[in-house]
């Protein structure tokens, strides 16, 4: 998928997921999408702040909350502080939180955004090959994948969520426990008036 098409889809749909065959949610769907069966997660090349490999394969045996974001995406930036506050609690539960930047300028954009927002707990993670959105079937941002300890996607949240609130805690507890989430566990969406 070309970057221009990706950006246009993100902007024109206001963060909603565009229609795609196979794994995509229905056009315009937002919120929590729970899969009937766990789905394999495509291999993607994730890099750390020093451009070393830091992919999902380094987290084998751990559940993962994988957030796809970009600095130019206002809803993405709005949910980053909640993810930052959430990370220590997830670490204590044995759940990895990976905030993967899809920015074209890579770690520079991430470092600048983190500094501007006062992000202290999230690690710099980038998609230097710029293929994660296509491989993970996420043509609009933000999208957060809930990946079980076997490395399979069990659910995803389309749009920006309040990840550090009580409703999200129930959803994340099920991820940590390896149990099936239910629709009533959906965290509320971020109100854009709260964007930093």
From TrEMBL:
A GO CC term attached to the entry: cell envelope
Region (Disordered): 177-196
GO biological process, one term: cytochrome complex assembly
Keywords: Cytochrome c-type biogenesis, Disulfide bond, Redox-active center, Signal
GO molecular function terms listed in the Swiss-Prot or TrEMBL record: antioxidant activity; oxidoreductase activity
Stretch forming the signal peptide: 1-24
Main location: other
Location in or out of the cell: Cell envelope
CDD domains: TlpA_like_family (cd02966)
Protein origin, superkingdom: Bacteria
Domain Thioredoxin: 12-177
Protein's UniProt name: Thiol-disulfide isomeras and thioredoxin
Organism of provenance: Paramagnetospirillum caucaseum
